[in-house]
Amino acid sequence: MSKEISKMLSLVLRHAPEHIGIILDQNGWTDIKQLISKAKKAGYKLSLDDLLETVQTNDKQRFTISEDGQKIRAAQGHSIDIDLALQSIEPPDVLFHGTASANLNSIFEQGIHSAKRQYVHLSSNEETALKVGNRHGKAIVLKINTGQMFKEGFKFFKADNGVWLTDHILPKYIAF
């Protein structure tokens, strides 16, 4: 049940809120009671307990509940225009990006772009980056010189779930 709910939440909170008829505010938040009601009308079996369990047990911590417990949003990974209201912060000197080996030629020619997402996602450890890369084919983990990027004016953000975000990465900052 939790996996099905997680997939539905990812869809409506990151990509297609209209799928169940919810509205996200400018920062990606939506009312939990309304989400549950609309999800049920759309044919999903969802209770408050199911939702809370899914948020708490999600291995990637994809969802954030507001401090007052009334709203929910996706922590990152949006393909729709959302302002997560994150402050730019200095990243570690090196972060990691997992991708499929089939993407390497393009990456070393054009860099890493966010594609259909708002941001490029970076991991603080190689293990997480490898898991991400495995979702796209034969995985390769790239080391990103984020310290130098930051010194040269690139902005970095850290999502609620610890994923690092940036707009794009030029080839000169990428290594194996």
UniProtKB/TrEMBL annotation:
What keywords are annotated for this sequence in UniProt? NAD, Transferase
Query: What Enzyme Commission number(s) apply to this enzyme?
Result: 2.7.1.-
Q: What class of enzyme is it?
A: transferase
Entry-linked SUPFAM superfamilies: ADP-ribosylation
InterPro entries attached to this UniProt entry: Ptrans_KptA/Tpt1, RNA_2'-PTrans_C, RNA_2'-PTrans_KptA, RNA_2'-PTrans_N
Q: Per its database record, what is this protein's job?
A: Removes the 2'-phosphate from RNA via an intermediate in which the phosphate is ADP-ribosylated by NAD followed by a presumed transesterification to release the RNA and generate ADP-ribose 1''-2''-cyclic phosphate (APPR>P). May function as an ADP-ribosylase.
This chain's protein is named Probable RNA 2'-phosphotransferase
The species this protein was found in: Commensalibacter nepenthis
